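chain below, 416 aa
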Amino acid sequence: MSAPIHWLWSIVVDLYTTWGFIMVPLSKTIVLVIVVLIIVAYSSLAERKVSAFIQDRIGPNRVGLPLTLLGFKKDLRIGGLAQPLVDGVKFLLKEDLTPAHVNKFYYWLAPALAVAPALLSIAVVPFGSTLTLFGTSYKMVVADVNIGFLYVFAITSISVYGIVIAGWSSNSKYPFFGGVRSSAQMISYELSMGLSLVPVLLIIGNLNLSGIIEYQAKNGWMALPFSNLAFGMHENGPWPWVSGFRPREMLLWIPMLISFVIFTVSIFAETNRAPFDLPESEQELVAGYHTEYSSMKFALFFLGEYAAMITGCALIATLFLGGWQVPVPSVDFHSLHDWTFALITRTGADGNIWGLFNIVCFFGKVIALILFFMFVRWTVPRFRYDQLMKLGWVVFFELALANIVITAIILAFVPA
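prediction:
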């Protein structure tokens, strides 16, 4: 190692050993925000690619590296992967028009209120197990607070203010209608979303998101309780079993699936994604609450919607799909007639290799859920507003309450 590199490395080591309580959370925050912004950027490209696939067309495929500027004969298209970068530059360079009739302070404040809650709420979501740095193990979560579950709900509930203020401050009837619709929609589905997670809390008894993941590692995922399934071969013949399987766990799978469905659909409504995109329906409201916005202020609403979708997918993965946990095959051959093949959940205890693997698994689940959200958007028609309200208040609200009662009865009367 050369002298300048050795000197810089020693400074980094000193910073992390002396000021680790500041440097470690700061580093995790910077990395997490960068990853989320990259996923947001390429989610917009994936959205167009998915819609093109469903509609049997090509989609963006031209924007790449402009090699002709360097004297080459052709540009390198690379499948249009540079499209998000060009879109970002376009938003930065477009004219930033502020209409004369708007309330300027709140008009400028609304985009920030729309994007900030999504980025703040993901701070308590564990995106990996542990990594060892300079001899110390660190949890892969920015803030591992004991009320992480409540923190997420408190912060995400603020996101409605950005939309409502945007519609009101625009002093235009279509944005105002979009803001009113959004406030009614979010109130309706936040109730169902919160009630749907009460059974999870009854079972686990923990508000810490890391604790929820650890519970699923031992007992199976909430939406897939047999994720710790194992099979074996003994001299008496093949035999299956479930690690930690009990009748109560089997019965609890029913309310957990109900909670999973209610929570997932509520996330669609919370993030204003189709088929629940009534606040910005183009046929009725032009573009809804952000009709009067342009340039980077409009881009912030766009960023907030995708960041909220990423946060919602991260919560679904954490609460119901094991978070960063993943079943990995493990074969233990005792003899030719006595061996086991188990689907076990790996943790970061085996070193940084498994720690990095867990981070990849978590974001893999998030990306898979994002693609699912996109497929739903381009395949399911938009609900009417009365259907939207009926689903939230008449169906999900009552179903979530009944689900709590069912879970409590199982926990009280079925032996563990």
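The first strand starts at residue 130 and ends at 133. The radius of gyration is 24 Å.
thats it, cya
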